[in-house]
Design a protein that fits this description.
The complex is a heterodimer of chains A (about 500) and B (about 150). With about 500 residues, chain A is an alpha/beta fold. Chain A is built from 21 helices and 16 strands. In chain A, the strands form four sheets. A five-stranded mixed β-sheet of chain A has the order 2-1-3-4-5, with helices on one face. In chain A, helix 7 crosses helix 10, helix 17 runs antiparallel to helix 21 and helix 19 runs antiparallel to helix 21. The longest helix of chain A has 16 residues. Helix content of chain B is about 45%, strand content about 10%. Chain B is elongated, with a radius of gyration of 18 Å. Classes of the chains: A alpha/beta (about 500), B alpha+beta (about 150). Chains A and B meet through helix 1, strand 12, strand 16 and helix 17 of A and helix 2, helix 4 and helix 5 of B.
Chain lengths: ~500, ~150
């Protein structure tokens, strides 16, 4: 009898040797069928090998090639006990305690199997959307309370409605897959593990606003995503979920992947548009909004990968279902990524409202080094450094905003007590020097002056500079660089004394 | 000598693609390893823009190089999640070992050392990429083996 063995094929597991493990397992016996699934996002267990048994999928990890002999001896093909065995995958606490909506299929399925996709809830949303009017789709998205997951948290329904109402002979859907924040990889996991979900979300967005062409702007640091997405697009076209006359509806939608070139600021939506047009990634002044004058001057929806990938489930189960997760004005779920100096790093999808401390202690299990946590940077390079005393902060947009911090794209980078916060503050400025597009003075010049002032120890003048960058930069690059700087100075004054 | 016909082939492939300049430059790098200055005139003509605009785009993006890179390209993540796991010390060790600084290619053309701001493998930091292969949890003492192609 053939046994199905799942070996993930995402960037993280491959970096830990998943390809070699997959080959070695396939070579064990002709009765083994190795399925390359996506990843569940439990990165600390990668490569996480799963064996399908009558009780469910039994997980082993992290598995290295040299472990396979002992796994065979432990009869792992029947789910046998072993030091690396974690029992049934879905019962592992790390996964079991999550609320998986957007990532419900990640890890479960072969990312490029449209059958797997459909058997597990895929395309239900699109089929429903095809029966609705554009206005009804947008209303449902508005009801869901979904806000942009890229970092700015703008209500998706309102954005879509603006593009819907704009009159033009061509409109576009642009997916921002320029996930440049350090400490984030949730977009990557989604694209590598469930690409049809993103495609479905983009097709629905096209139906809603009347756009027939979409682009995925993918960062060049994600070469595997490019391969998976392009394969998925070909399959979706062949199955008529993409292309001309989608499922006989009369609606068209075409999708193309474009590759960035190592510029962080191209994750800013207007810089991304410039880059997609083949230009330098210089930020545009707003207004006009991209919803009115976007790509090639046409009305354009720009959404993050996870925003678009949340659409299929909202369409399938209704806006009210999604809205029931979360707290306050932060509805639904958000993908957190536990990274840096963390013992159990990975992806955790939870409803808004869990505290930072719960996330780091219960999921992350503390630092990788075993030393005490000193600081946690949430929300990427433009996010605040948060000290232990504020670990009861609930992870939702408003609570973070009140605390002078940002949730951003959900990246959580943990530093142990060896971190030098002056060095981190200086890096915030230095990163802005490297990545500033150069269009506005506060960002272009301010970042260099800020870095110098940290060296000089002139913190009074630096505070003034921070206020100026905050109030007069054209985009978040210059405007938010002061956030990590100010938080570091506020909480770790001792690090700034020479 | 740069085979300009090869460059023109690439340019012809992308010149009619809306906003296709970045794709074209990636295509040229895939063929030559960098964007040869000999191709700038043809790019400008193909895309109907000025040479200054072409130069502007090439020089804007970190990915585009204007001279050949080393036979081995080592890229080290310099962003926060890797910093939290010792990438600063690792970078110094690698610089000493290869005898070049971040952003440089050695005189003998053996190595290029480049900075990257995030590979998206931040739960397994610090990350180093060697000739396109990503290595997680790199320590100073196993880097030497990795760069010689001895595996992890």
């Amino acid at each position: 009898m053939t046994v199905n063995v799942y070996v993930p094929r995402d960037t993280a597991s491959i970096s830990m040797g998943a390809d070699e493990v997959a080959t070695a397992i396939a070579n064990l016996s002709e009765d083994i069928k190795v399925v390359r699934n996506g990843t569940w996002g439990m990165t600390y267990l990668e490569p996480l090998v799963e064996v399908e048994t009558e009780n469910g999928r039994v997980a082993y990890g992290p598995v290295r090639v040299e472990d396979i002999q002992s796994l065979v001896e432990a009869d792992f093909l029947k789910g046998g006990e072993h030091l690396l065995c974690h029992g049934i995958t879905q019962d592992i606490d790390y996964l079991k305690n999550q609320e998986r909506l957007t990532f419900e299929r990640c890890g479960l399925i072969d990312p490029l199997s449209i059958d797997d996709y459909q058997k597990n809830g895929g395309l239900v949303g699109l089929k429903r959307a095809l029966k609705l009017s554009a206005k009804e789709i947008i209303d449902d998205v508005t009801t869901s309370g979904l806000r942009g997951r890229g970092g700015a948290a703008f209500p998706t329904g309102i954005k879509w409605n603006t593009v819907f109402e704009a009159k033009a002979n061509q409109k576009y859907i642009c997916c921002n897959a320029d996930e440049g924040d350090s400490g984030t990889f949730s977009d990557r996991i989604l694209m590598e593990s469930d690409p049809f979900c993103l495609i479905e979300g983009m097709v629905i967005a096209g139906l809603a606003v009347g756009a027939t062409k979409g682009y995925i702007y993918l960062r060049s640091e994600y070469p595997l995503c490019k391969v998976v997405l392009n394969d998925a697009i070909k399959i979706a076209e062949a199955q008529n979920y993409l292309g001309n006359d989608i499922l006989g509806s009369g609606s068209d939608f075409f999708l193309e992947v474009r590759i960035g070139a190592g510029s962080y600021v191209c994750g800013e939506e207007t810089a991304m548009l410039e880059s997609l047009e083949g230009k330098r990634g210089m930020v545009r002044a707003k207004p006009p909004l991209p919803a009115h004058v976007g790509l090639f001057g046409k009305p354009t929806v720009i959404n993050n990968v996870l925003t678009l990938a949340s659409i299929p489930i909202i369409m399938a189960k209704g806006g009210d279902y999604y809205k029931d997760f979360g707290i306050g004005r932060s509805r639904g779920t958000i993908a957190f990524q536990l990274t840096g100096n963390i013992k159990c790093g990975g992806l955790v999808e939870k409803a808004f409202g869990i505290t930072l401390g719960e996330m780091i202690e219960e999921y992350g299990q503390g630092t990788f080094s075993g030393q005490n946590v000193k600081a946690v940077q949430v929300g990427g390079p433009l996010g605040a450094y948060i000290p232990l005393e504020e670990f009861d902060l609930p992870l939702d947009y408003e609570a973070f905003s009140e605390a002078g911090a940002v949730l951003g794209h959900g990246g959580i980078v943990v530093f142990d007590d060896t971190a030098d916060m002056k060095e981190q503050a200086k890096f915030a400025f230095d990163f802005c020097v490297i990545e500033s597009c150069g269009k506005c003075t506060p960002c272009r010049i301010g970042s260099t002056r800020g870095s110098e002032l940290i060296d000089k120890g002139d913190f009074e003048l630096m505070r003034e500079l921070c206020d100026l960058m905050d109030s007069s930069s054209l985009c978040a690059m210059g405007g938010m660089t002061p956030i990590p700087v100010k938080s570091a100075i506020k909480h770790w004054q001792d690090d700034f004394k020479d | 000598m740069v085979n300009i016909d090869k460059a023109i082939d690439v340019i012809d492939r992308y010149k009619n693609m809306p906003g296709g300049l970045l794709e074209c430059l990636h295509g040229l790098q895939a063929v030559f390893g960098y964007v040869p200055k000999e191709s700038i005139n043809d790019i400008a003509e193909g895309f109907n823009i000025s040479r200054a605009e072409v130069h502007g785009v090439i020089s804007y993006y970190h990915d585009f190089k204007t001279s050949p890179r080393g036979r081995k390209v080592v890229r080290i993540c310099q962003a926060e999640a890797c910093q939290a796991m010792g990438s600063r010390a690792l970078t110094k060790r690698v610089e000493d070992l290869l005898g070049i600084k971040i952003g440089e290619t050695g005189d003998d053309g053996a190595y290029s050392l480049e900075a990257v701001y995030c590979f998206g493998n931040c739960s397994l930091s610090p990350n180093v990429e060697i000739d396109g292969k990503l290595h997680p949890r790199v320590k100073s003492d196993n880097f030497k083996k990795l760069v010689k192609g001895g595996g992890a």
